[in-house]
Each structure stands twice: as structure tokens, then as C-alpha cells.
Amino acid sequence: MFHKVLIAEDHESSNVSVRKTLEDAGIALCDYTYYCDDALQRAQKAFLTHEPYELLITDLSFEEDHRKQNIQNGVDLIAEIRKIQPHIKVLVFSVESKVSIIHQLFQDLDIDAYVRKARRDVEELKKALEALSKGNKYMPFALKQAVKTQNTYEFSEYDIILLTQLSQGMLQKDIPYYLEKNGYKPAGLSSVEKRLNLMRETLGCSKNEQLIAFCKDLGII
Amino acid sequence: MFHKVLIAEDHESSNVSVRKTLEDAGIALCDYTYYCDDALQRAQKAFLTHEPYELLITDLSFEEDHRKQNIQNGVDLIAEIRKIQPHIKVLVFSVESKVSIIHQLFQDLDIDAYVRKARRDVEELKKALEALSKGNKYMPFALKQAVKTQNTYEFSEYDIILLTQLSQGMLQKDIPYYLEKNGYKPAGLSSVEKRLNLMRETLGCSKNEQLIAFCKDLGII
DNA sequence: TTCTTCTTTACGGTTTCCCGTAAAAACAGC
DNA sequence: GCTGTTTTTACGGGAAACCGTAAAGAAGAA
Predict the structure, then answer these.
(1) Which of A9, A72, A117, A209 to mutate to test the interface with B (most CBs of B within 10 A)?
(2) Cβ(B61)–Cβ(B73) under 8 Å?
(3) What are A98-153's pLDDT values in tens digits?
(4) Nucleotides of C under 7 A from a protein CB
(5) Within an 8 Å CB–CB cutoff, is residue A221 touching chain B?
(6) Is A96's Cβ below 8 Å from some Cβ in B?
(7) Between A157-167 and A208-218, two packed helices, what is the crossing angle to 10 degrees?
(8) Which one of A113, B20, B96, B134 is at 20 to 30 Å from B150 when CA atoms are compared?
(9) Is there a contact between B89 and B132 (Cβ–Cβ < 8 Å)?
């Protein structure tokens, strides 16, 4: 089992639970922070004093408040800590449920475990710790419970620009001008129409209003 | 301070933290459930044996899983428990941050406290318990401020029907038929147009897409 | 280069939406 | 009953969106 663990989690209630879980698992030395910058600082210090953390447990989203932060989310935090300590194990603990996003964490950041904040999350945390301490990865429900809906459509940056502008009240016919001014291509009205049509078609939306509502629900815009 | 508290919270980690917070506050008798139906059942039983709960702490959203539930969210749970025990105090503990939704909880369900899952949530829980035990309500600071500055526009049931239908892809011109079929008045297309126009005007939206996005953000639809 | 293929744009017809005006209906008070 | 007010509906012109098709352009391969 691990000896020295670092927790980065802004929600106090989650932070407490993670700590308690580690305690129950017999991990005595566990430090915690509510901000990414603090976490990085602690990791740096621990590494320099030759007492590095073996495991980082972090959330993905951190809320902004009065304290200005350089690092504002878990992904960046992981990247920064890995720069100074490439082989630290990482467990991500978050509410995120989109398979594609979780998959990216394993693929791009090479994280070691993902536990979703959900009904049995403490139980899962324990299992994940178990697996990690044995040198295994832990990616539980990720591929099993394929998240609901046929959200197979991949929204491009271009799509999101269109949706954002629409949702901010820009007329469709004015979007070409906006696109051109900001250097996005294609900029023709027909292209805009075609793209919107494709999105509606793919997602089974008959009108733009429905499309906007759908994307709002997905948190894309 | 309270003597008997019931917790309904599906996330195990949050559930644990709330329990620990109550414990620290010296509340010995605290039961917890991960499902709404279980919570209702316990409340019923406690009430019938003349040992009712004094306080309900509940989340708003409960995730579905293999266990089919009659009650699927905190709002319904509160309503059901209040049917049998109208004066039970209620503290809602949720990630919801939309002012309009929280405001509705106080207004329509007459809840006694709201604590948002966030950076200092355990601290806030303690304060809320303190306030409640003294017979006070506990509102997040942001809400008190926002109550005044909140957009004065009151969404009627009729408005929400229009917005909902639009967001589900119904053509504007088909809405009169729908309204008439379901007995809503007025049902004329002009009335629909006028109402939508008023909403856009009042909320500073130039297009329906923007209106839908706005209302999605507010959590109205 | 030329040819092919794919992407982007331009254009026209149709539908839907937007908005103003006016008629019709509902409602209140007398 | 009548009269004035408000709400609802009907209608019509113009703008925007929608949709199909065809032309223009870009990219790649021979």
C-alpha cells in the first residue's frame, strides 16, 4: 500500500471523504489541498526533499474564487506535476461521466485510475487504491457502462463556434462575416447552413432551438 | 441542536462527509440512505412510531441504477415526506448553483437551508445546522444578494410550455394546435408570437436560440 | 501540366418566422 | 341592455432560415 499521498480537491466534503478513506486503508501520511497551485507547490517541495508523493488524487474541475490560481483544473495540474515527477501515480476523482473525456485522460495523460463521484464511490476508491498498490491500473465502469444516449457526434471547434454565436443571438446570416473576421474557415453562409444541418440531422434535432437545448444539456456551450 | 436526522444522498463520499459533520456537531442519532424511496420509508416508520426525524438533509439529483425508484429526485422526496410530516426541517445539499432554482426551493417547498457542494461546504454545513437549531433559515450569501437583483420577469406555466416545446423541436406554427389539444389558452399563433416576443424583449434576447440558451442556464427548462 | 475528387460558395425557390395593424371576442362597470 | 377596456385572433408584408442544385475553388495524384 502507499505511504505518502497528495490530495487536490476543492470540495471540502469530498476532500474529507477521500482522507477518511485513505486513513481507513492504513495510509498515514496524506496531505491535502483545496487549490491546484498549493498541490503543485507541495509536490515540488516533497520531491526536492527526496520524500516525494507516491500517489496524487485529484479532481478535474476546480472552482474559481478570490484566490487567483495559475493552474485551474486537474488536467493541467497532472501535467505540471508530471513534469517534475514523471512517474507519480495519478488517480482522478471526478463527477465527469463522459467516456470520451475519461478515455482521453488514460490516453493522453496516462493516468492510473479513474473513480467517478457516484453512489458507490468510496467503495470504488478503496478498490482503486488496492489495484494501484499492486501496480495495476483501475478503469472501472468506464467502458462497461457506456454512457447514455447516442452522443457519438464529435463536436469540432468550428461547431462550437457556430453554436455559441447562435446561442448569443447572432443571426445566421451574419455568421459568415464573423467567421471571416476571426479567420475561421469555411466562412460561407452555405457552409454554415450545411454544418448546422448536419448537426441537427445527426442528433435528431428538427430545429436550432432544439439543438441549442441539447448542447446546453451536454455542457458543450 | 438536533437529536434525530435523516440523510438522503446517493454519493457515498458526500454521504460519509455529512455523517461525519453531524457527528462532530454532537448529533448521535443520524440515519442515512442512498435512495429516495428508502428515505421516505424511514421517515414514515419513524413518524408512525412517534420518533420522527427533526431534520432531513437531502441531495437534489439522484442517479438511476438497477434499483427502480418511485421517487427520483430530492424535490419529490421533500414533497412526499412533508405530506406525512409537514413541519420537518429540510436542508438541501447539492451542487446546484443556479440562483433561480435554489430560490424556488425556498419559495415553493419552503426548505429551511441550502448548502452548495463547494470549497467550504463542510464549514457551511456546520453553520447551517447552527442556524437551523436556533430556528433560523440558512441561505447562501449569493442568494440573498441575488433575490433583489434577479430578473423581474416571472415565467408563467404558459411560458415554460412554449419554451419546452420549442426546445423539443416543435415548429412555432404548430404550437397553436398543441396548445388547443391540451387545453391551454390562449392558443392563437399570434398569442404565441407575442408571448415569445415579450420574453425576448424583457430578457434582451434577439433570437429564440438565445432565449433557449438563457433559460437552460437558468434551469427553467 | 491535366484530371479527379472533395470542399466551399453562390443562387433560387419555398417555408417559417417576425412584426405591425386591425378585427373579433371576452370582460368589466354602469 | 350599452360602452369602454383588455385580451385574443386573423391577416399580410417583409426578413430570415431552410434546402436543393450547380458552379467555383482547392487539393492530390498521375
Answers:
(1) A209
(2) yes
(3) 776 787 788 889 999 999 999 999 999 999 999 999 998 998 654 444 444 445 56
(4) 7-11, 16-22
(5) yes
(6) no
(7) 110
(8) B134
(9) yes
